[in-house]
Amino acid sequence: MKRYEERKQELFNATERLKEALQEKENDIVIDGTLHRFEFTFELAWKTIKDYLEYSGIVDGVGSPREIIKTAYANGIIEDGENWIKMMLARNSLSHLYDEEKSREIYIEIKEIYINLFENLNKKFSEIL
């Protein structure tokens, strides 16, 4: 429980820092920083979900991000499983190669879709415990 609570707070903080980055005037440095914050926030999100699922006895401590996302969707922790999978794939593409055009597309997706997924998850975690 303690690890879940600590990670949950870190996720809340990371989401706020990502929101702050999204409010900045766009330039290459701001976009790159936002992408980095997005990667960090996504990692915290899926690991916090995993911690909660473990605490709840739903999973036993193993699982890839994809498996955790599917399990979270099946258990009502997240509502938009399809966009969570898309977000995971976007995060993976950022960490494996650098394509400026693709990274700018992901930046727009963060602003339009992914930040809302993080906020909804935080809201859900606030309601749960």
Tell me about this structure.
The protein has 129 residues and is an all-alpha fold. It has a single domain (2-128), classed as Nucleotidyltransferases  domain 2 (Four Helix Bundle (Hemerythrin (Met), subunit A)), CATH 1.20.120.330. The chain contains five helices and no strands. α2 (28-55) crosses α4 (81-96). It is globular and about 45 Å long. It starts with a helix and ends with a helix.
Describe what is shown at a glance.
The protein is mostly helical.
- Low-pLDDT segments, ≥5 res: none
Strand content: under 5%
Radius of gyration: 14 Å
Work out the number of β strands: 0
Which geometry do the CA atoms define? globular
The mean pLDDT is 94
Q: Any idea what the CATH architecture is?
A: Up-down Bundle
Query: For the record, what is the CATH homologous superfamily label?
Result: Nucleotidyltransferases  domain 2
Main sheet characteristics: none
Helix/strand-derived category reads mainly alpha
Tell me the helix content.
over 70%
Listing every helix as H and every strand as E from the N terminus to the C terminus, the arrangement reads HHHHH
CATH fold naming: Four Helix Bundle (Hemerythrin (Met), subunit A)
Q: Please give the count of helices.
A: 5
